[in-house]
Amino acid sequence: MSGLPPVPDAWKQTRAAARVLLVAICAVLLVTGAAGDSLTTDEYGMIPPGYHYWTTGRSFWWSDHPPFLKLLETAPLLTLRLPTVPNFWGLPFEEAIDAFMFHPATPVERVAWLARLPIIVLTLLLVCFLGWWASRWYGPVPGLLALFLAVFSPDVLAHGRYATSDLGVAALMAIALFLGEAACRLRSVRRVVGQFARDPSRSLS
Q: Measured between alpha carbons, how far is 100 from 97 in angstroms, rounded to an integer?
């Protein structure tokens, strides 16, 4: 009987358990970090504009930041009864931010936690995606190593718990690269099929 021996089921189960453990560790680190940190300067510039984008349908500040991540981060805030600042977009930046965040009816800690939650989920999806992508290219062991490196990356742990654009942009870029790679592979397959249809003998030579 030729060929490589089959991979034992115990080894497969060990790899699966290691993946679950790594993702669980990442989740614990992100959640505990988010719960213990105060709002950062960048979050003050993301949360109030994002919430008022939902409530007013308008957005003017930081036009170099696409609104998708702001809307994603502040979507959970719609479950709260938060105050809206009259003429929010007409006020100076700092004045509008302070009027919303330091309003007596704004529960700042709860707002911060709910706004960070979508980024935490996105971070967990990103590390899982990176591990799967590496496995797809190089096999299960390199995929597990990629997952390990992603989970314990200082950049991932630092930015994956804040309602900012850093981790969101990284996740969307990773997805874009994967889709670009898939499109190139699909195009290559179509090219081979087309060449075979035109000249089978040349394609097989």
A: 5
Say which DSSP state 87 is in. Answer: T
Tokens 């719960």 sit on residue: 35
Measure CA 76 to chain center.
16
Closest CA to 131 of 33, 2, 20, 12: 20
Residues with Cβ within 8 Å of residue 53, at least 6 apart in sequence:
59, 67, 70, 71, 74
pLDDT in tens, 109-129: 899 999 999 999 999 999 999
Residue 181 sits at the vertex; the CA angle it makes with 180 and 187, to the nearest 5 degrees, is: 90
Query: Higher confidence at residue 45 or residue 9?
Result: 45
What whole-number distance in Å separates Cα of residue 20 and Cα of residue 189? 34
- CA pair distance 98, 160, nearest whole angstrom: 25
| Token code pair at residue 16 | 């699966």
Q: Which of 15, 10, 30, 32 is nearest to 127 (CA)?
A: 30
**Inter-residue contact 41 to 163 (CB < 8 Å):** no
Report the predicted TM-score, pTM, of the whole model to 2 decimal places: 0.81
Alpha-helix residue ranges (DSSP H) falling in 57-107: 67-74, 93-101
Query: pLDDT value at position 149?
Result: 95
Q: Tell me the Ramachandran region of residue 40: left when phi exceeds 0, alpha when psi lies from -120 to 50, beta otherwise.
A: beta
